[in-house]
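Re: beginner question about structure tokens

> Can someone show what the tokenized structure looks like for a real chain? I only ever see the sequence side.

Sure, here's an example I had lying around. Input first:
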Amino acid sequence: MDFFEAQDDARRRTKWLVLWFILAVIGVVVAVDALIFFVVGGGEAVGILIPASIATAAVILASSGYKSMQLNGGGSVVARDLGGRQVMPGSTDFEEKRLLNIVEEMAIASGVPVPQVYLMDDEEGINAFAAGTEPSNAVIGVTRGCLQRLSRDELAGVIAHEFSHILNGDMRLNMRLMGMVFGLLVLSIIGRGMVELLRYQSLSSRRSNDKEGGGIVMALFLVGIGLMVIGSLGVFFGRMIQAAVSRQREFLADASAVQFTRNPDGIAGALKKIGGLSFGSKMKSPKASEASHMFFSNGGMFGFGLATHPPLEVRIKTIQESWDGKFSQSQLKPVAEGRVQRGEKPRKGAFDALPGVAVIGALEEMGAESRRSAEAGQKIHRALAPKLKEASHDREEAQALIFGLLLAEDEVLIASEVSFLRESAGEEATTLALKWQEEVRDLHSARKIALIDLALPTLRNLSDLEYRRFLEITRWLIASDREVNFFEFMIQRVIERHLVRHFERRGFGKIRYTKFSKLMNEANLLVSTMAEIGAESEAEAVAAYEAGTKGWKGEFERQGATTLGDLDEVLERFDEASPLVKKELLVSCGKAAARDGDLSNREAEMLRSIADAIGCPVPPFVEGLEETEY
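And the corresponding structure tokens:
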């Protein structure tokens, strides 16, 4: 199953999820009615049943809606609820730096923006999760136990597992499920809260001999117990849905992690260490049960056939058929282990454009995990100069780095841009922007894109006023030359999708187009634009267009999209298409770009911008990395 099929499968599962949720709500309402009928009696209960049913359903639906709205804030909402703290880019802690490097390498290899990373310091078990409504607001969360007990390969296997949840559409599905499950749990939560609160009130009333007040407290205490009993049915249904949705997805994520890292020993080793610990992957957070389906392994909240993950033995045996059945023992690492070891030397080299034959071959499996390799991410990440990576991790320099990527090379244009920068951002930001422009001028687009991805988590930490100033400056720089520059266009799309959505708390997107034929005109425009980018003549452009549109009729449009507004409007519509429709578009654009035998920098940038704008991560199409020391 490739990325697009997995995304489409997740979309279909969402429909079933809604149906299961409705049936669960009906089940809870019926249970409440049965309890009322039993306690009050047949004749007198009739007049109470309808209001009670409406009230019960309203509480569940309102609570679910409230939680879903809260979760629109993205994965950081879940991470903070679970007691996580953000690991800031540029952290000097050895273990945190290792974690950030692994996440960045995985993101670059996947073609997705680098997610924010959260660490749950108080959790000693080995566990992790991915949360978010889309890659723009995704986070990766790991427990302190992961950093303390796992080797780099094992940690990479766990992180790759979580990235597969992002790529396969599980993350969004899990967020929807979390909102729904909260509604089913809410009666039990309210009842438990009432019991805990009124238990002490009851003791206080007895001491004060306030019989009337004590009677009211006791009555409310019994109501709380009743809500806990009724709510337990909602808990049961919620656990059933969590287990049904997540179990098979865990097998897919495990398999994807093996393909991604090309190292089955990594993720298998992590699972063996979980089995070898007395507390395994258990989570202490009181809110862990709401997110149990998101974790790398069972959080230890419940079992009895309702576990959200397959048994460890089954998962390990699926990865390593020759496993001897013995779990691994793990100890805390020695103090300061690895601090005095020489780190890996930075590397540099020139990327070659991927040959057209290889691009077309890759497009036949567009989105397949076999096209994504953590090794590619490692190579690109290590090839970046340390000063560039450090700049992308600093909130001030990251902004200047993006400004530097946007500055024009034309002397007339850059003079007005520098003047605007001085006025809007200050003298030091302008100096830094000019410095970074010189540093990145000759970099391959794959490295430039990687720098943008590395800077995104840092830029998400800007204040609201800083974000608005940054957005205003980047928009001005992009529009200053009044021409379409495809690299500038790509940066704009990345910023608009991943920063605007983060700061403006935009929620789930809706699928409006499920047939490619409904977007034929838009597809024609994009393929025409792609065909022209690498063509030296109109004849070459037409030939490239015909290669991309083979299988569906269309007419080549010369200079199909001449403004950013034209492209934005077309891409907004494809962003509302189903995953398989998006795949057909990307395959067509890719074949048009690769028709001449090469995927040039500009073509790679345009293909990436189209894919990113419609929510489809595309791994870097590069090869031939020469590795030499600085």
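Each token stands for a local structural state, so reading them left to right follows the chain. The first strand starts at residue 85 and ends at 86.
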